[in-house]
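Example 3.
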Amino acid sequence: MGKLPPYATLGEKVWHYAFYVICALIFFFLIFPIVVIIPLSFNALPYFTFTPEMLRLDPAGYSLEHYRDFFTNSDWQKAMWNSLAIAPMATLLSVSLGTLAAIGLSQSHVPFRGPIMAVLISPMIVPLIISAAGMYFFYSRLGLQGTYWGVVLAHAVLGIPFVIITVTATLVGFDRSLTRAAANLGAGPVRTFFRVQMPLILPGVISGALFAFITSFDEVVVVLFVGSAGQKTLPWQMFIGLRENISPTILALATILVALSILLLTTLELLRRRSERLRGLTPQ
Amino acid sequence: MSDETNSGPVLTADGRSLKKSLQRALRREKLRALMLIAPLLLFVLVTFIAPIGDMLFRSVENRIVSETLPRTVIALQDWEYESGEAPGEAVFAALAEDLREAVKAKTHTRLGTRLNYELSGMSSLFRQVGRKLRRMDPDKPWREQFLKVNKKWGDPEVWGVIQTYSSPLTAGYFLNAVDLRLTPRGVEQRPENERVYIMLFKRTILLSGLITFMTFLLGYPIAYLLSNLRMKTANILMILVLLPFWTSLLVRTSAWKVLLQQQGVINDVLVWLGLIADDQRLELINNATGTVIAMTHILLPFMILPLYSVMKTIPPSYVRAAKSLGARPFTAFRRVYFPQSIPGIGAGAILVFILAIGYYITPALVGGRSGTFISNRIAYHISVSLNWGLGAALGALLLVLVLALYALYDKIVGIDNVKLG
């Protein structure tokens, strides 16, 4: 936007400040719904609005009741452990297969690059409800529907596009002469990969892994269809809670998840800076 | 250089022709690249592409009639619906035999449910005859005994439906998905009160369009502001865009569910401000309004990010040049800046639209009756009504729509230019 020039007319001045007000309102719209659930989650009463006690900042209006419920209620705890059992395994699968393929895709001569890329990116494009329906039909035929591994496989494949995109992006700036130098000095392909290539593309791999993790950790449509009661994850439990009788415990969990996403955002930003530094680009 | 190398083809150290040697190296490189990709490709094909294929197949598959009633289907070949009469004794005898096996395998109820999608009453007809079959006398004429169980067996409509759906593949589900139906007389419109899908497709597209427009309206100023601020300030404000982007979808949906309730924060504030009376609180949730508000918020970052990346490449000198040539600020913006930002608008709009038309969770939670999308109907057919064929056909239509839009997106932005975060 810059500063207003001294010769700006009154109309221009008004518009200049009006624009800032409009932008502030839009930022408010973006961030308010997320921020407002934080104080509401400490409500001492099971209401979804600010009680008079809360508005007076009376400590009696606040409590950790809903957090206590989240950490003691067996339904929520089971859902949390299910999520923590499914997401890392799905991440491991998509990162290991995805990194390998990304390295293959970044070679200079890849036959059928376009169609292969289209297939690998497709889980991100196809609407989740269609993926969920297809997987429900097909995994039932294979006996995978309603099993732990069925959900893990489904979540792993949903995470693949993110791993492919982030890792190939890091590989674009990768200096090929380094692997050649390693080979020249007598390192085999495996050793070259782990000692030279891997450390350099690690930031991309980690951010791909974070994307894959959050895809699985946050996913609800596919798990609703592919999973059964035994694989009930946190988003699933939240979905039920929101649809049937919404309990304030959801707000406590939501606050925890917001904290988690702030942590994630910070990590990704740090990784991006590190990756740019490694590539010899100045951090922005 | 010696004479030998000049006369013959160029050779490598091991005596092979250089051309062949290079070709071999290239082939080996290609093979290595493929070997690295193969495991993942195989994985995606089995866990993702095959399920999608399975769904597409289910949208036309219809073996249940010919598998449950094989003899009847053959016997019915000579019968013509136009005759206006039920078929003769031979067909009834074939049906009796087929049904005896079907009742033993308990498949007759499934067949009844399947045919009930096409003609109501078929389900109970098959259940009833399944119960009475044991008491029928195989020596007496079958036709009369069937008619005694239920007069409907003399109705050519019943037989017409069986005949129409006896082929192993059918377009029936797709016709149902666009409010038509396949009858013995050909393709017909569904009765007025059963036409829902065209309306749902229209609503999905209309609301997605509205949501896309809202994200454009709110996203454009933000992207403009971010791309014209100093890098340091822009990065800090960017956090306000990225935090919602990274926050769980369910967290954002629950936030809106809490905010938009009749006893929620927004209504409370409006009452407190005196804008509305306490007994006239606005209905902001469980209708289309709720869906549009919540989804605009959820999809806004997907509009801002592509807009921002395009706007950052627009040199500020162009607008300055326009102004120094005498353009008013608004004209400079309209004639010089805005046209250059159109690729960003295109990319953001298609992205938001694609994401919106496939949305399921948010419409299901805040949409009520008037704010649900076609995906909610697909989910209903798969998990509640169990009409999988119709669910698959609706899914296939939605998929075609999304892929067509995606091809457009690919043309504008390019598949390799997808950026994250």
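The mean pLDDT of chain A is 88. DSSP finds twelve helices and no strands in chain A.
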